[in-house]
Structures are given as structure tokens and as C-alpha cells.
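Q: Fold this one first, please.
A: Sequence and structure below.
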Amino acid sequence: MSEVYVNGYFAGEHDKPLELVKALIEKRRGSKLPETMNVAYHEDKDEVQINVDSGRVRRPLVVVNNGKALLTVEMSEKLKNDEMSWADILKKNIVEYIDAEEEENAYIAVSREELTAEHTHMELDASLILGVAASVLVFPEKNRGDRLNYGSRMAVQSMGIPLQNFLMRDDTTYNVLVYPQVPIVKTDSMEAVGLDSHPSGHNLVIAVSTFYGYNVEDALIVNKASLERGIGRSVAFRSFVTEFRRYWGGQEDEVCIPDGSVKGYRSEEDYEHLDEQGIVEIESKVPVGGVLVGKISPLRFLGIAKEIKMGLQNFRDNSLTVSNGNQGIVEKVVLTSDSEGNKILSVVVRDTKTPEVGDKMATRHGQKGVIGLVVPEEDMPFTADGIVPDIIVNPHAMPSRMTVGQLLEIVAGKVGALAAKRVNGTVFRGKEEDIRSSLKYLGFRDDGKETLYNGITGEKMGVPILMGITYYYRLYHLVSKKIHARSKGPVALMTKQPTEGRSKEGGLRLGEMEKDCFIAHGAPITLRERFGSDKVSIPVCKDCGVVAIEDHIKNKKYCPLCKNESIVNIEMAYAFKLMLDELKSLLIYPQIIPENS
């Protein structure tokens, strides 16, 4: 007997589960049961799952009966010409929505040509086997599966115009591409996804060639003139928020330009961008650590009456500043309040980012790389017609990745640019023969290769170079947001070791492998400093071996156990001292025995 579950709850048992499932599906198609119901039999668990609850992802599939799809070619044409509506097809049960669970029992054909008597359903369109991100990729069937995965991830990380009202918003952080373009080689789903009105890349002229070794290991050579014309330029918006709180005793935070009597006062230059209210002026340039809003907070909660009586100026500087690694021009200031009536000030700072060496770019085929060199236009290779590529890509990136789709896009993009039309690169639609014949018709070699001339020497290159147009994303992994170094800086309160992370001016961690490199380079003494970031001298009792007490008032050191004053200073890592303290808290007695005691 098979168990039957409805919306996950046990409903009973049935001795013929497959017949039950078949009967329920027939009743659904006969409109005797709700069309939102989905049913599936799991053979491994010997149970029937019936689902009518909300929250399931369902998708439309064409019903197949005895090897024939109920949606005929004539019906498809009528749908395209608006002679028949989607509602009509659903009413006639030609198409049904099934969820992931019922899909496990279905045998789905991708196209009409592969239908057999065993098939239960057929895809409305072959491209629907892909998800939203993957459906943006062009010629995906020509690439390896893992490359499509990478390509989908790159599409998600690309800069573009995420929202067209971005100037009215004050999100924490967002990047906007300044001159985005719709791709020449497009897919059918782009319009449905909304990418035609929110594009996220550029059509770039690329040459597949080496360039003096500067584009080794996926690095890209970029034309400096192309960058100056605006390729890949973006604006990074970052909002900084501060809240003005009310405290017990009638005190509250104040917006003002702090004066010299306030604790933590910076300097006059730090407050020069603020207006008389203490708020930064719009369109003023602020550096890293620059003050955006002058704010003072009470130190202790004495109450206003006591403060006046005692004559205290008990305030500290608590100004809103630009965080480490950020700078730019003030875009706008938003003043609002929260539900408790506390004032909130949000300052949006913008910074224009031109692509530089180290910034990441990627194609829709998972071919990602960083800019390795920015070359003046006069040193770039050029064609007899004077066409100079925007980007030079290393040919070694293609064979191992097997991204034939990218090679096809280069040629298809060239056809689209020359014929002034957008080429369809939807999955299973693009035909290589048609693209190559179109390029030959336009007067070029059908493989897209051209003779190039060396921009530095002026010599003709020995072999023809593949040249065409590819859609490139600029990803939000900017080198200016990742580069980090420090000498001295803040340390963590508990461990006395350098803080962690770029935003906290953190140190760079040196691990086992880095240590081995220092030794291999013959510089082991450097490790003394590297591994002594929390070196400390601790007073220890010679007899008991416990950490001694240092009394600064009486200016003496003594042992907490035997009370004698035979103390010796021992150098150790503060982290080790912390461990000794933790052992003591576990009632374990750690003893340090000095060598020469």
C-alpha cells in the first residue's frame, strides 16, 4: 500500500498509486479538479504527493497525447498573430502548468522533432530549458556547460542601469554604467527580462591576438582612446547615514560645526566643507575620512540642569565621515526621521570610475579577465581601413575553455554592425553557415579574420587575426575597491593584534605558505617583525610562574600567590597571555618557568 499525502499531510493509503495519479491528472484536465493541483508518485519512497498549496514554482508545458503535441503548428501561428489567446489554450487544456514535483514524473520533449509515444509533455520553446540569467547568453549550445554557469554569474555581477530612478534613491551602495548599450547579438528573452531598457554592457571591437605578453593569463589589452570615449565608465553611489538620538536626562545629539572645546575635535580644514548648519554642501569634493555632517554627542548623561550648574561642556565629536576606501563628490543630502521622531541624515556621495589596470571584465561566455595594460591608440594594431580594436584578447583563452560560442559571437557581431541589424543568438536558433555566408556577402572573409598592422612598428602582421564585435560586461569588482596596504594602524582591543579587513585599515595576514616564501627568499629575519605584531613584555613571578600584578600607584610589581617581589619580565605574544588567562578561568594553573631563574 502506498501512502498518500496532501500538501505534506498524510491523507491515507492506496494500493494502485500509478492509476490514482493518472485518474487525478485526467480529472484536472477535465476541469473536475482545480488546475492549480499537481500530483506526483515517488517510486523510491512509495508515496503519492498531491499539492494545491501556494508558493510552488510552476511552468507551462504542452500536453502530449500518443506522441502528438496538442498544440499544433497552426495554433502556434494563430497565437503569434493574436487570432487565439493564451486563455483559450489553457481552457482547452492544451497547455498545463506543472510544478517541480510533477515534473519528476514527466518525460518532456525539447522540440517537435524528437517527440515519441513515450513523451508526456513538450516545451513551448526550446529556449525555456534555460533560467533567467542563462537565457541572456548567446549561442549557449556551442559552449561547455561550466562556461554557461560562469556566464550566468558574470551577468549577475555586471554594471548597468539597475533602476531608472536611481537619482531619486539613496541605497547603501550601487553602481551605474554611464553609456550602456544593448547587445548587437541578442536573445529572444532579453526583452521579456527587461534588459533592452536596462542594458548592462558595451559592444566592443575585439582582436584575438597576443600583445607583447601583456595579455597573458586572461588579461585584456584595452585601447586608451576607447576609455577616454567612455567605454566601461561608471558612477559609484554610496550613502552615509547618521541618526540624531535623544538621551535620558533631556540631552540629545546636535548638528553643528564642533568647536575646539569638544573632545575629539579634528581641525579647521576637516570642517571646511560644512555650511553654517554643519551639513556638507552639495557638489563639494570630499576625501577619504572627510566630514559630511558635523555632529556632537553628550559624553555622560548628567542632565541639562546639572551641566549648567557644574559648567561642563561634556560633548564629544561624533561627526559622520566618509569611510575608508571611499571618496567623491556629494550628490545629495536627505533629511528624514524615524518612527520615534529621531532625525536621520543621509548623504549620498558619487565617484566616477574609469576602467584601470586590474579592473574585471567578462563576456557572456564565461571568459572573464582583468585589464592587463592600457595602450595608447597609436600603438594598437589596426586594419587597412583604420579600424582599431577596443580590446585585445589572448587566443590561448579559447581552446582549453572550448567557448566556440564566443568565436561565433565575434563573427555575428561583425555581421550585425556591418548590416546595421541585431543578430538573434538565442539557444538552438543561431546557424553558423548563415552568419558566415552573410559576412562573405558583406565583403569580408567568412571566418572573420583580417590583416592587421602593428601599431608600434607599422609592419604587416604575419598571420590574419580574428576581429569582430563582442558584448562585454564591466563587473563591479574594481581594483580601487580592493587594493589595500598598511604599515602601522589600529589593533583589536582583546588580542592586541592588527584589525581585520580593508574597511578597518586591517593588517595583511601572513600564513604558513607566505612564511615559507620569506625563508626561501633568504629573508627569515623579516619574519621576526611579521610574527611579532602583538609582542608584549609580561611580568612573571620567578617562584610561582604566574603573571604578576603591576601596581602603578605604588610603583611595584608583586606575585598574586606568594606576594613576593622577585619578578622577571618575559616577552611573549599577547595572544599567548590571553590563553593563559583563559586557562586560569578554567581553574587550570599555567606555570611559566623562566630559563635563568
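Q: Good. Now the second chain.
A: Here it is, same layout.
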Amino acid sequence: MLLFGACLWSAASGEAGQVDYGTARLDRRLPAVRAVGAVHVDGALNEPDWSRAPVASGFIQNDPREGEPASEETEVRVLYDANNLYVGVLARDRQPDAILTSELAKDFNRQSGDDFEIILDTFRDGRNGYMFATNARGAKWDAQMINEGREINENWDALWQVRARITEEGWYAEIAIPFRTLRFSSAASQTWGVNFQRRIRRRNEDSFWAPLPRIYDLTRVSLAGTLEGLEDVRPGNDVRVKPYVLGSSGASSVTKIGTDAEAGVDVKFGVTSSLTWDFTVNTDFSQVEADEQQVNLTRFSLFFPEKRDFFLENSGVFQFGQGGGGLLFTGGGTGTGGGGFFPPRGQDAILFFSRRIGLSESGESIPILGGTRLTGRVGDYSVGLLTIQQRSTTSSPATNFSAFRLRRNVLANSDIGLLMLSKEAEGPGDNRVAGADANFRFFENIDWNSYVIGTATPNVEGGQYAWRSSLNYESNFFHFKGGLMAVGEHFNDELGYYRRTGTRKWLLDTGVRPRPKALRRLGLRGDLQSRLVQAHLSLAFQDGSGSELGVEPATENLVEPFVINRRRGIAIPPGRYEFNDWFVTWRTNSSAPLSFSGRVDVGEFYNGYKQSFLFGTAVRLKGRLNASVTESRNQVRLGAGRYTTDLITARVEYGFSTTAFVNALVQYNTDAREWSSNLRFNIIHRPLSDVYLVFNERRDTDSGGLIDRAFVAKMTYMVAF
């Protein structure tokens, strides 16, 4: 056993800082051992079978000292039986009192503390995988990974167990992953891709068993090691039935208190070892966290990410033309919209934005009768089929939304695909969308991504197209991205999110990342996006603190008046406007018990001037309490008038244990003239089964009067076969 671990070290490390990543990948092989006795998941690793298992050790840093041995030793062993894959971890630490765990919640923030992560490429295709993570207190995080990180679906929920404990040696974790949770081939002997990551937060250190260059992370499964020796294991049927019951009461400024009761069910069925069929009836999302409010100073609609589990799960199968950031087919996204034609930064648009289903433009819920979804793999093909039926209301007709996605793997790590979308409503309002995309990778660090899309709307001719082509190059020191895009004047995707039609856009994003020892990262970047130029200088220090300063020259051509503040009746007249936004940001170490962040923007704004200020503070206590308060103020002075907006957001999260949490979100918005609060209490009473207590309230800021209020109690109970 000791000799095996030593061989792993010598094969991959060589001289400090010098790693042949191709050779290291081939040499990182770990046999799994079939357990003879029972394995009890208690974090102790004291069963005799663990002593028979070979050790995966010799982790190599990719940050901050790429290619050097990890500062602390990590030992990983793998066992299995007929039902489960077991992973035993000893994360040695010479300062166990310094081990940092900041959260107990499910799907915890992995970057905020020490953690251990696994990726399993069960089809050994070097593209896709399952990810699992835990920390020294046994918190759980899991995700599906598609196309080496082009999509990481953190809303995928797996049936698995973990127990962890801190000792004088460091910390232990014992993990059990049922085979029925995973998808893999039916071969009698299994060989999977695998990699392990260790994060030591106080040093901002990331190390990997199969070493990776600094520009990559755990999702780079084409450089993963090999897990071998799995004999006579089967994925199982993986049939899950999850009914729910719900009771609610509510009131508003115009209605009295009313009560309601509902029930529904979700069913998941493993058609084959690689195809999953989902059904949902009377779908409910009352437990989902409220949206964070935003102040809109642009001419375009704001972006709010999808948060509903049904639409987020397996959304990566439906991605379209993402590449280095293009039209996406996904359930949501991250970030907030910028100016011009740009939705969440890095995305041009989202071809199918699932918030169009079951939600009004104002975010109010529209009941869903039910739906079905088929996702998975058939040989070299990825398949996705989705159809959802939305009920009729007084303000919207009954509507069916459907999507079909087919993607084929080609070459070593490339793919081509097709996509079709359909919206059918009672009466007028039908809409069709179809497109093809291609995503190619060359020489490991060059990506070429292209797509073409057409839409069909009744009584509209011409200009119903969109296309894009981009080339991306990434290295440790230099990066480059260039692309062209066009959107036709009558492009109409009623299932998507985009900001502007009738446009031509070119993109150039290039920069260098010198790395002096005093700094963790230095980036100088400039990218021309239609009428927006961005020039940023960013500094990231070893302790996690950092700063950024820059200027964003913008040009806006208004062909009609732009009403920037409807409540105050302030409009900007037509014309060509050129203005610069100068900004500086800063942040302290976010893993510290107390941290701060801020941003200041100053500069011209259309025919006037704008000053924006943002200040936030966060508190983390003993891995249980995470609280933050952020205030954003915009002071706008224009030819037609001046005004000030304030947005205050307060968030509190407390973990009683790894199965009981409370979350609160309180917001104050002077532009919307309201206070809003969202309080959620969640108990996981058995695996993937929850009890939720949710309270929502909105009040008018001027009078303090009630706008609306609701209380919901919901219980789910998942049964697996």
C-alpha cells in the first residue's frame, strides 16, 4: 500500500513546479476494492476493508503554486459493494484548529471554506460527470457537469450519504454513493474517469490528485485519472416517487385572509442506464426563494435567474451554442444584466428561458397543470425532450411549451446539435424556434463555437434569424476571445430572453494574467461589445481580498425618448450619447468572520451625470451563521430632472445541523416603494424529503400598509425503488 502511494507521487510530480499533465493523467490510476464486510458511514474509516484499499495521494497544487506538492497530505481510498461506491478521505492538517467550515447548508458555498470534491466520469467520455463535495462538518453539495463545465447543474439532487469529523490528524470524510444514483454503461467491468480536489481556504490553496493547469478546474475531466476494478455493478432502476401536500393562507390590501390546500407528485424513472424520464403533476414552487430586487438604469428588461428545481435539473442537456458565452438553452443563469444588448455577463441571450413558463412578466405565479421530460444519452447522442402545460388564468391563456434537443459527440471533445422549441397558446400567440450549433475544441485550449437560429411567427416575414461565431484561446498568461453576431429585425423567440433585435455585434476580449508572488492574480482586459468598451485592471491577493478599477466608455443612440424613470416621469430625448463610467471595487477576505465589499461608479450618463455607491458587509460565525447587508445607491442627474434610488438587501442563513436550516431575505426598494420579506424554514426529514415553512410579505414604504402576505406549509416525501 505504501509503495503504491509512492509510485503515484513520483509519476506526476517530478520536480516542484514541473508537471507533464498528459503523462500525469495516464499514471493516475486507482483500483476500487470490493468490500467483504459491511461499511458503516460514520466518518471513522475503521472497517478492515479500508486497510486493504490502495491509497490515492500525492496531490498537486494548481493554485497558488502551480505544479508544486500540496502543503498538506490527502489520502483517498475507494471501496464498493453491490449497491454503493464508498470513498474514504483523510485530509491531514498540522493545524486542525485552523480548519475552516463556514456552512452546514445543502449545496453549500464550496469556495468559502475547506472542502473535498469528487468528479466521476462514469461513461469515460472525457466530457461529462457527476460532482460531489463535502466539508469537515459533513455538509453536502452535488451537481451534474456537462461538456467539461460549460454547464454545472447544482440543482441536481442525488441520493448519497456523508459523515465527517475533525481529529488531531486533520479531518475525515466517509462517503457512500448508491450506484442507482448514477448513470453508466451495462458492461460487467467498469472503468471510470475520476479526480479529487482538496481546498485549504486559509491558504487559498487548490490541489488535485490528477494535476491540472491553473486555468482549469475539477470539471476538466479529459485530464482526470482512472478508477478501475469495478466488477458486476449495476445502476439499478432509480424509480423515485415524490408526492407533496401543501396548505397556505394569504391576504392582500384588496382581499381578506383566504386559505387553500393542494397536492401533487413528481416521478422519476430510469428508462435505461443512461436515460431518465420525469413526470410532474400540479407542479408547485412555493418553497423557492424570492427574487433579489434590482434597480434598472438601462433601456432593457432586467434579468432574474431561474430558481425552480424542476426547470434547473438536467437543464444542461438543453444547452444550445453556449461555447464561450453565446445564446444559451438553459433554465437560468447567473449574474445580473449589464447595459446595451448584454444580459448576464458572458451570455448574449438565453434561447429558452424557463421563467417564461409558470411566471408572469412581474414574477407572479401561473399554475402549471403538469409536464414530462426525457433526458440522457443514447450512444454518442445526448437527447432532451420537454413539454409543459400551463393552466389558463384571467390574464393568460392555457399554453403548452415544448423543446427538443439532439446533440452528437464528434472527434475527441467536440459536438454538433439541433434544437426545436414550440409555444402553443389558446387563440393567437403560437411561436416556433429552430437552430443548429457546433462546438469544437482544438489543442486543449482553443474553442470554436457557432450557431444559426430561425424563428417563425404568424404574419411576420423576413429578419427572423440569429447567428453567432466565436473563437476562444486560454492559457495561464494570455487569453483571447473574438466573435461576430447578428440578430434579425423580426427575430422573435417568445420562450427566450434577449434584449435587442435588428443588431450586428462584434466582440474582442483579450488580456494578460501576470502572476507576481505578492499577488494571486493580475488581469488587464479590454473587450469591445457593440457600443460598450470595457477596460479593467484587477488585483486578487493571496488571502482572497482584491480590488478592480476601470473605465467603460459607452455610446447609445436613441431613436425615440427613453423613459428612464416612469414613476417620476423622467425621459431622455432622442440623440447620440457618449459617456464614460469610471469605477473602483474592493473586497476583503470573504472567508473571515467579518468581511466588507464595495463599489463606486462616477461619470457622465446620457445628457447628465451619475454616481453609484455600493457597500456590503458579511458575518460568518462558527460555520452556522452567515449574514450580510448590502446597500446600493444611485444618484442620477439628467436634463429632465434628478432622482436618487436606494436598495437595501439583508440576508440571514443559519444551519442548526446539516438537515435543518432557516433563511431570511429582507429588501427595501425606494424605486418600487416597498419593503419585502421572505422567511423560509427547511427540515430534511429523510433523504430528498423536506418540510418547508415559508412566509412572504410586502409593504408599502410610504404608508407602511400591507400589499400582500402569504404563509405556506409544504411537505414532500420521496420514495425510491
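Q: Anything worth noting on the second one?
A: The chain has a mean pLDDT of 84.
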